[in-house]
Amino acid sequence: MAPLKEHVATKTQQRSASDLWGPAPYAVIVVDRTGTVRDLNPAAASLLGGAAPGAALSDAAPSWLARAHEETTNPADRPAGDTPATAPSPPVFRGRIGARSFEAHPAPAPDGGGCVVWWLVDDTDRRLVEEELATERERTAFLAEASNVLLASLNTDRCMHVTAQLASQYLAEAALVIVPAAGRKLPMTYAVEGGAAVRRTVTADTALVPGLSEALQGFPPVPSRWIDPASLPDWLIPEGFTGTVGSASVTPLPGHGVPAGVLVLLRGTSSTEFSENEEVFARLFAARAGAALSAARLYAEQSDITRTLMRDLLPPRLDRVNGVEFAGGYQPAAARDRVGGDFFDVHPGSTPDEASLAVLGDVCGKGLDAAVLTGKIRNTLQALTPMAGDHEGMLRLLNGALLNSHHTRFATLVLASVRREENRVRLRLTSAGHPAPLVIRNDGRVEEIDTRGTLVGALPHIEARTVETELLPGETCLLYTDGVTEARGGPLGDELFGEERLKRAVAECAGMPGTAVVERVQMLASQWLHDGRHDDMALVAITAPPTTHLSAVNGHTRGRYTQ
What we know:
Layout: H1 2-21, E1 27-31, E2 37-40, H2 42-47, H3 57-60, H4 63-73, E3 93-97, E4 100-108, E5 116-122, H5 124-150, H6 156-170, E6 174-178, E7 185-192, E8 198-203, H7 212-216, E9 245-253, E10 261-268, H8 276-313, E11 320-321, E12 324-331, E13 342-347, E14 356-363, H9 367-383, H10 391-403, E15 411-421, E16 424-432, E17 438-440, E18 446-448, E19 466-471, E20 476-480, H11 482-485, E21 488-489, E22 495-496, H12 499-507, H13 514-529, E23 537-543, E24 548-549, E25 561-562
Antiparallel strand pairs: 1-2, 1-5, 3-4, 4-5, 6-7, 6-10, 7-8, 9-10, 11-12, 12-23, 13-14, 14-15, 15-16, 16-19, 17-18, 17-20, 20-23, 21-22, 24-25
């Protein structure tokens, strides 16, 4: 009777234990030390394709689960040094059953007979979410890096190179950046597998590539599955791309109001085709690349416009005109500014016997606003050069033009009509609220020309006084703006350079060429400032050329002169 009771008790314990995992949501399989299946719930039977009690685990389950059972039931099989104290607690084994991924968690059987209960937990969805999260993190890091690199430069070529390199490194095996162009010539930059970018221009018909013409006009991209790789033209396959194109993607590069170009991605036949998710990610990258490329293009256009306008705003380079030496120097108030409120011009006479007109002026204010009015004054005076013989008439017309403009600034200026008469130079000088010109005589005397007048652009009526003088060979007339005399510096940094100091400085320049006089005054004024703040400074030197050469001219320089 005793053996029968023990058998009945064992069956009861097994049945009650089985009842515990029978309704469990996970597959459960009980395996003894010999690797024989002793029990399993319906979920395990369905998962393992009809496994039943009494079957060998190696026959009823995947090999990874059989190996996991051996490692769990035979500690001696563990690698050296992997003791129960150091083994994972609890141990978890992973593998695939069919198309799904599972975690296998072992636990001792309730009957204590040495069997192991394996709980099989489907973690496919969790692992997919983790993989997608890791992928999104990588993509976010890539987009952040791409944005930083693309926005680090406002150079169009560099933006195209960086776009092609990044795209060929992270998105495809090869990438091409094509920008809109007139006619059939397409500027493009390509890179293969993150290598050096190459720029070239091809003559091609964009209609041969599905979606390319539309993308260059800013239309949405066509799905890559609509593009037949075999039909792609040869000019679209970059040098260095080996093998056959297996998949292609055409993505527009959106810009600021106008399309910035197109990004073409290519993959070989050994790679997977572009998925819908990858095409969406390519569009995210293209949006950043297009914004950077568009900003670089706008900056280049603005730079071209600025350079074009700047050529007319910058003071001209002066030289000999109708037998008279002219020299000029200009220093804006701020180092970052190339133009300002000071200006000078020389308008040559139509014939050597006709007087040339030299103008030097100072517009109230500094920077670009003052430079705009400076340009208007210069253009107005150029239009008035036919009446250069009437300084007062020119000033009245200029004053009326400034009063009728929207500008509220005024200006001071000095006009000088200059004509060569044999070896002398005759001057007619008229000041409109401007510092008086200085004449440097050969004996070192400095004469202040007594011409004066009211400034222009402030009062309805102006008055001006014209004075005539002449220069002997080697003598110079210096026109300057108050930025020179009002330069504040010196030992304590608060003293003006002043007119007297200027006169003493130019007195030391007797007999020097006009260029040397201008450079000398600029050097002394800069030394006086000690890098301090100052107003715009402009100078014009009008010199009667010496008539006798001391040394021969080498064909490129004027040589040295004496009287």
